[in-house]
Each structure stands twice: as structure tokens, then as C-alpha cells.
Amino acid sequence: MFKLSPDESQPLKHLRTMHMATMAKTMTMVATKGELLILSFCWHPTRADVLAITTSSGHVHVVYLGSKYDSWTMHSEPLMTHSLEAWCVAISAYPLALGEPDADVFTIFSGGDDSVLRYRACTRRSISTASDGKLTIDGHALALKGCHDAGVTAILPLPIREGRAEFVVTGSYDDHIRLLFVPDASIVFTAGATSKLAESNLGGGVWRLKLVSFNKIPSGDYVWQATILASCMHGGTKIIKLSKTTKDKFRFTTIGSFTEHKSMNYGSDFQPSRNGALLVVSTSFYDKLLCMWEFEEVKCVLRESMG
């Protein structure tokens, strides 16, 4: 754990290092038999003291860092378990409140090499009202099978719900990006309740997804649109537009791509530039290449010819 303070004499300060295999029973057992890798992690979207991690043994854990990042703790048992490597994890940014004013309710999603998307509802009561501030796991871990033809490598919950379900975008080794409609994990799961709304082949394994923007549209042909930056391994970097129409149709459209990378594009990030364009940094693996490039969406207006 590091703290970045650009205005201080020591901009990057090391706070703490923890060997996580000693913190959880299952991780210790795996580590004693061989190498254990932490494959991904994500922060809780609103709490600076909570993060989730995944491991090469297929486990998903929640880590509590403490208010001063000095008392890291972890549950002895994993929150969820995949049969193969757990490649990615995400925490829903827009949790569903269950009428508990002192509770922090959220959903954790994970994707594994077993082609399964797993998710589970969690409630963490505030430390001010509970001395331990521990996590309460609601119900059972739910598994979504059959929607992916290879390992699930990226998960992006969107900031919108309909009823007690949310929209989740996933990426996979099978080269596809997908939009899923996932029922809230805190309610009774019924077979067939999760549905696949749209998918698109991006020409490479969809390794990472980042939300660039999300806009509700008050009029016209669309209800909402999301712009997504996708790192697509041998397919390069893609900028995707995901739309919901007023006729309840969903569509992925590739509006931009960057193909200078001759190797695996595993990571990309962005920031808006001053002229309204998107400033992107993308990287590739074997050729050790880092590129900075700019993307500006071209808006085309089709007009009917009057002869």
C-alpha cells in the first residue's frame, strides 16, 4: 500500500506490505502446496477501507484495511470460489439499499477461467455502530453459466438499475463483449432470471473494460448510452458505444479502434482532453509498448435527399 502526495517532499510513501497468504485459512493451505498468485483486485466504490481480490486458486476474498490502513484483516474463508483461476472482480457501484440505515449493502462480481460469472450480496454495518464492522454475507453465491464460451476476464457494472436488477457488461477470452441483466443477489434467484441482452465480437480477448461516460437521454431514439474503453489483447484497443433504444433494444457499436499495438493489449486508461476529445494511454505486453493517442467521436447526421 502506497500513498501518493505530489506536494510533499516524499511524493510516494510506502504505508504497509502484507503477505495475504498468511491472512486466510484457504490461502495458507494453497500457498503451502505451491505458488499462489493474486490475479486482480478492486476498490469498493465508496469506501476507502474495503477491497476485493482474486487468486490463481479460484478464490475471491474481501480485505479490510482499517481506517488508517494499519489493521488489514480478511475472512478465513473465501466469499466465492471458481473451479479455475479467478481472473477478475468488481463491486457494484450502485448498491440496493435494504432499509438498513447503518448498513453498507453492495454486490461483488467475479469472473473465472471456468467461464462462470459469480456474484454475491454483502452487508457491512458501519464501524460507528458495530465494534468490528465485519461483513455479513447475504444468501448464497450465485453462478451464471452458459453465457460465455471461455473464461470471464472483465466485469463492468453499469450505474443503472431497473427494478431489482442491474446491467452488467462482461468481457471474455472468447473475443466477445456482452450486456447481462442480472437480478439483485439479495433476492431469491429463479432459473432463467438472468438474461443476455446484447453481445459483439471485438476481434480479441476482452481483457479489461473501463466506463468512459454514461448518459441518460431525455428524448430521441435512445433511453441511455454508455461509452466504454476496451483492452482487447491481440485485437488492440476499442472504444465502444452501448445503447438502449426507446424500443427496448440494446446494441454495441465500435466507434473507434487503435491497432498500433502488435502484441497483447492488456491495459488502457483515459482522461478527457481540453478540446472535448478523449486522451488515451494504451499498453501492450511482449513489445513493451506504451502509446498515447487521442480520440474524437465524429457525429454524423443523415439527411434525407429532397431530390
Number of strands: 22
In DSSP terms, counting alpha (H) and pi (I) runs of 4 or more, how many helices? 1
Q: Tell me the count of domains.
A: 2
- Please tell me how large the radius of gyration is: 21 Å
The percent range for helix content is under 10%
Strand content: over 45%
Distance N terminus to C terminus? Answer: 67 Å
Overall average pLDDT: 84
Residue stretches low in confidence (pLDDT < 50, at least 5 long) are 97-102, 126-131, 300-307
Instruction: Tell me the structural class.
Output: mainly beta
N to C succession of SSEs: EEHEEEEEEEEEEEEEEEEEEEE
Outline type: globular
Largest sheet: 5 strands, antiparallel
Structure characteristics:
307 residues; mainly beta; 2 domains; 1 helix
Overview of the structural elements:
The protein has 307 residues and is an all-beta fold. The protein has one helix and 22 strands. The strands form six sheets. Strands 3, 4, 5, 6 and 7 form a five-stranded antiparallel beta sheet that branches. The protein has a four-stranded antiparallel beta sheet with strand order 8-9-10-11, with no helix packed on it. The radius of gyration is 21 Å and the shape is globular.
Explain the layout of strands and helices:
Blueprint: E1 2-4, E2 12-14, H1 25-33, E3 38-43, E4 50-55, E5 59-64, E6 73-74, E7 80-81, E8 86-91, E9 103-112, E10 117-125, E11 135-144, E12 152-162, E13 165-172, E14 176-183, E15 195-201, E16 208-216, E17 222-231, E18 237-245, E19 250-258, E20 267-272, E21 278-284, E22 289-295
